[in-house]
Write a structure and sequence with these properties.
With 372 residues, the chain is α+β, with helices and mostly antiparallel strands. It has a domain at 37-192 and 294-358. 38% of the residues lie in helices and 15% in strands. It has nine helices and eleven strands. It has helices at residues 52-61, 63-77, 104-118, 197-218, 231-247, 275-288, 293-296, 305-334, 347-360; strands spanning 45-48, 81-83, 120-127, 133-139, 144-148, 154-159, 168-170, 175-179, 221-226, 258-264, 338-340. The strands form four sheets. Strands 1-5-6-7 form a four-stranded antiparallel β-sheet, with no helix packed on it. Strands 4-3-8 form a three-stranded antiparallel β-sheet. A two-stranded antiparallel sheet has the order 2-11. Strand 6 (154-159) and strand 7 form a beta hairpin. Helix 2 (63-77) packs across helix 3 and helix 4 packs antiparallel against helix 6.
């Protein structure tokens, strides 16, 4: 029997996070340091969301992520509003100025979702000859450059073009710009997808694994041992078998052609069930996006009526904060005062429940001199 040379055997590189580690039990994960995109002291500093198309791809591909963003925007700006000034707001029609295809609500609903996806949302302010705002035109974050001076103050915006035309420049007051999740001295917002990107990747991996397992139940791998080394005959045999399996038909093979056949399938309950892991990742994703499962209509069986109310009240407070954020930005940048209608409140009902519970939990009065 020929002896093989195994002197060149090497171990796999499974410690790429920390090459200095010598123990398999060492905790290898380390947090990635992050610096803010603030002014650098130079005359002008430019920032542009170069990841916009990737983030938009996540939005279009991951249904639960898109649903979280849509629901959050819907609960924030989709309840209607009361206008306290500037009656001309009814003329704002977005991109459908003449055809009136858009309304002020649909425009800010669009901008809210864009801001969650990209971290920033932009709209060009269209004014008439008297300088009165008559329209808002949403812009793609991927085409807008933010230019700040040496101390971080925005001096202009530039809209890049896919053609040979030069960039269109805007003064700061010509653009309605909102930054979401802004941190410290950064000149831009932060996409909410960044904090859930790893979770999304783990979801996709787990679902692909589950898909493979289900396929192995229904369609196992079959190993054929054939009595020939002729590659042409083997290729033709493979085509015939693949076609028969695809159509679900019988296969007739001569006795002297095939030596053996082995079937590789996944027995039921022979592997870990990935569904609890997938559900856990789903829950982590929507919670990181700020939307409880009960708001998405997918609450778990572990949620009681009381716990669901508490979760909803917490979400209600979050939505009111987002509404205040929008109201202040619209007033400061557009000069329009509105009051967004808050979502239905469960706080009075929760307080009433607590009052009832307090009455039930009172100690029994055994002193006849005292009356309830």
């Amino acid at each position: 029997m020929t002896k093989s040379n195994i002197d060149s055997t090497i171990h796999t590189d499974m410690h790429t996070i920390d090459q200095s580690s010598t123990s398999a039990t060492t905790f290898l994960w380390e947090v990635t340091s992050v610096s803010t995109d603030g002014a650098t002291g130079q005359k002008e500093y430019t920032w542009q969301c170069t990841e916009w198309t990737k983030y938009l791809g996540y939005y279009h591909t991951i249904p639960m992520l898109a649903s979280s963003f849509d629901r959050k925007a819907m609960w924030t700006v989709g309840q209607g509003f009361k206008q306290t000034s500037n009656a001309f707001m009814r003329f704002i029609k977005g991109e459908g100025l003449k055809m009136r295809k858009e309304t002020f609500t649909s425009i800010i609903y669009n901008l809210d979702r864009v801001g969650q996806i990209s971290g920033d949302c932009f709209a060009e302010k269209i004014e008439n000859s008297q300088g009165r705002l008559i329209n808002l035109k949403p812009l793609s974050p991927g085409s807008i450059k933010i230019i700040v001076n040496e101390v971080g103050i925005i001096v202009r915006y530039e809209q890049t073009s896919n053609t040979d035309k030069p960039s269109q420049k805007f003064k700061p007051e010509q653009i309605f710009h909102i930054s979401f999740n802004k941190i410290a001295d950064e000149v831009h917002g932060i996409s909410e997808i960044i904090k859930v990107e790893d979770v999304i990747k783990m979801q996709k991996e787990a679902k692909l694994d589950q898909k493979t397992l289900l396929h192995r139940f229904v369609k196992p791998i079959i190993f054929f041992g054939v009595d020939t080394d002729d590659t042409t005959k083997i290729s033709n045999f493979k085509k015939d078998v693949d076609k028969a399996v695809e159509l679900g038909e019988n296969v007739v093979i001569p006795n002297d052609v095939m030596d053996k056949m082995d079937r590789l399938s996944i027995p039921q309950s022979a592997t870990l069930d990935p569904l609890p892991w997938i559900n856990s990742l789903n829950k982590e994703q929507v919670l990181a996006c700020g939307v409880p499962l009960i708001v998405l209509g997918t609450g778990s069986q572990e949620d009681t009526e009381a716990s669901s109310k508490i979760i909803y009240v917490a979400f209600e407070s979050y939505i009111k904060f987002r509404q205040l954020f929008w109201e202040e930005q619209i007033k400061n940048q557009l000069g329009i005062e509105i009051k967004l209608n808050p979502p239905p409140s469960l706080l009075p009902e929760l307080q009433a429940d607590n009052k009832k519970d307090g009455q039930l939990n009172k100690p029994l009065n055994t002193d006849p001199r005292k009356h309830e």
